[in-house]
Specification:
Helix content: 25-40%
Largest sheet: 2 strands, antiparallel
Strand content: 5-15%
Number of strands: 8
Order of helices and strands: HEEHHHHHHEEHHHHEEEEHH
């Protein structure tokens, strides 16, 4: 009897076990299916919520820009980018009511801080949605890439914020240190994976050509990738180096720096030009990377994913091989030249036979009273180091649309050669014109320049 009971118990246990594992397996399948459906629904729900919130976020940021700047399209009749796009004329930063630039310059930093007179346009410029951040591209670039490659860089949650007339000319020319005789080798085109080979096969060596191919190849990025954690409607191939540094220059695309936390302290980044990296020794506005190879490698491993290696792994980080791929990309970047400056001599200063009297006076100011050359010496107008302007001494810390405006810390000295081709200005793009830039440094460096001196200094900058 005892043996029979044991056999019956074993059979019942076996049956129960089989049923149990079947039930567990079926339950797991149901949970997995629910999770798949939930994941899909979650992305759709998130996208629709962000789309619904987009107009409110855009209006809040547009109101901020309107309070800071005169955004009218007033092109200069004489100052133009290298291929002819007119620069915007005049100071666009708005002053506090009843104030003038000359009266403001007479006040000490402490008086300006106490009276809250520091112009809003001189404060740090936040990302269009500081809490969200991420890469944002101007419409001109989005349209061109969609036309050439069918790759859509539109974000469903945000649009680029600055008007087109304040941006660099599109497409920017490409000048090569190896073939200065050719002038602009872009032939007026935006270089992409579709056309890079036809444009450059007879100009570049095989390493440089491969480097260029990698610079125009899309790789996954925080907002543009194939996972559900993205800001494009469809799963995405990603972005290229030249989506921001278009034609090795810039289209003023924006992002948030990846190496600062918490989020409200992260600086907006105005994409710098890659022209003249062969004479530079620091890379990244604050990170002080020591070579173009470092910059190339860590942009895709860190900046593309907001400095988050976990997100990078999950979304499809492209780990470049240092000995070949990084080397090839860096070699190409290192032959991108500054635009021609016909009024400069071989020492990077004005040829007296070609310059106007105002330009000559501006050069004297640049190397004298205005103290510009302390950080921006000729011939390339950079000292390859970093400086802290201590702008925070002019205002009390405050939150601006989610961006905490306080001390920026030391910022890399960017070259001023070809500066007219690279609006907007300063590391976060807060200064829309070169005239704004002159007023900013006149105030921050306490120079007390006259109106005529400012005009002369601007004339010199346009020669660079």
């Amino acid at each position: 009897m005892r043996g029979l009971r044991v056999l019956l118990a074993a059979g019942i246990f076996s049956a129960m076990t089989a049923w149990g594992w079947t039930a567990i397996r079926d339950a797991k399948k149901a949970v997995s299916a629910a999770e798949d459906a939930s994941g899909h629904d979650d992305f759709t729900v998130i996208m629709e919520k962000m789309k619904a919130a987009k107009p409110t976020i855009a209006k809040k940021h547009a109101d901020l820009l309107e309070a800071r700047y005169d955004l009218e399209n007033r092109p200069s009749s004489r100052a133009k980018n290298s291929r002819g796009k007119p620069l915007q004329e005049g100071v666009r930063v708005k002053l506090p009511e009843g104030m003038t630039w000359s009266k403001l310059a007479e006040l000490s930093p402490k008086e300006i801080e106490v009276k809250d007179l520091f112009p809003l346009g001189f404060l740090p410029l936040p990302h269009p949605n500081q809490a969200e951040g991420g890469m944002l591209f101007p419409k001109s670039h989005i349209d061109e890439i969609k036309k050439q490659e069918g790759r859509d860089l539109t974000r469903f949650d945000l649009d680029f914020d600055l008007p087109e007339h304040f941006l660099p000319e599109f497409a920017p020319p490409i000048y090569l240190t190896t073939r200065p005789d050719l002038g602009d080798v872009s032939k007026g085109k935006v270089v992409t994976l579709d056309n890079y080979y036809a444009l450059f096969k007879d100009i570049l060596n095989p390493k440089q050509l491969e480097g260029l191919r990698l610079l125009v190849t899309p790789f996954a990025q925080q907002q543009f990738n194939a996972t559900d954690d993205r800001r494009s409607e469809r799963a995405h191939r990603g972005v290229t180096c030249f989506d921001c540094h278009v034609n090795g220059h810039t289209n003023a695309a924006t992002h948030l720096v990846g190496d600062i936390r918490p989020q409200e302290f992260r600086h907006r980044l105005d994409v710098p030009s890659l022209r003249g990296v062969n004479v530079q020794r620091l890379f990244g506005s604050q990170r002080a990377l020591r070579s173009i190879e470092d910059f190339t490698e860590f942009e895709q491993r860190a900046a593309y994913f907001d400095g988050d290696p976990v997100a990078a792994t999950r979304k499809g980080v492209n780990v470049l091989e240092r000995g070949s791929q990084v080397h090839f990309m860096a070699e190409l970047q290192s032959i991108l030249d500054f635009p021609p400056a016909p009024k400069l001599n071989v020492f990077g200063k004005l040829d007296a036979r070609k310059a106007t009297e105002g330009e000559k006076r501006g050069q004297a100011l640049f190397f004298g009273k205005a103290q510009c050359s302390v950080c921006h010496p000729a011939p390339y107008y950079t000292d390859n180091t970093m400086h802290n302007l201590q702008v925070e001494r002019f205002f009390k810390p405050r939150s601006i649309n989610g961006r905490m405006a306080s001390a920026d810390g030391p910022i890399k000295t960017f070259p001023l050669r070809g500066i007219k081709d690279s609006p907007p200005y300063l590391h976060d793009g807060r200064l829309l014109t070169l005239a704004d830039t002159v007023e900013f440094f006149n105030l921050v460096l306490e120079l007390n320049l006259s109106a005529t001196e400012k005009s002369d200094l601007l004339a010199f900058l346009l020669c660079l």
